[in-house]
Write a structure and sequence with these properties.
four-stranded antiparallel β-sheet; alpha+beta; 27% helix; 3 helices; 86 residues
C-alpha cells in the first residue's frame, strides 16, 4: 500500500528544496509532475488550477508520517491532500 500526496506549492517556490537528500534516500519518495504521474499509470488526475504548481509525492505507507510532517512544516507548501492507494 502506498500514500500519494497531492501538493500545491506557493508561487515561486523552489520545489527542489522541499526535502533533504536524507529524507529522499530514507523514504524513497517519488516526486512527480502530473504529466509524469500520468505516464506511469496514475489516471483521473485533474489539471491544476491556473497559476498553481502541483506535484504528486508517492511514498510507502510506513513513511507517510515523515512526509506528512515535512509538508506541514514547509513554508513553500500552500496546501496538500492525502490519497491512500491499495
Amino acid at each position: 500500500m502506498m500514500v500519494v500526496f497531492e501538493v500545491f506549492f506557493a508561487p515561486g517556490a523552489d520545489i527542489d528544496s522541499l526535502f533533504s537528500k536524507e529524507t529522499l534516500k530514507e523514504t524513497q519518495a517519488q516526486i512527480m509532475t502530473l504529466d509524469e504521474a500520468r505516464k506511469v499509470g496514475f489516471s483521473g488526475l485533474p489539471d491544476p488550477p491556473p497559476g498553481r504548481d502541483v506535484r504528486l509525492i508517492a511514498v510507502a505507507r510506513r513513511d507517510h508520517a515523515w512526509i506528512h510532517r515535512a509538508l506541514e512544516t514547509s513554508e513553500i507548501v500552500a496546501g496538500f491532500r492525502v490519497h491512500h492507494v491499495d
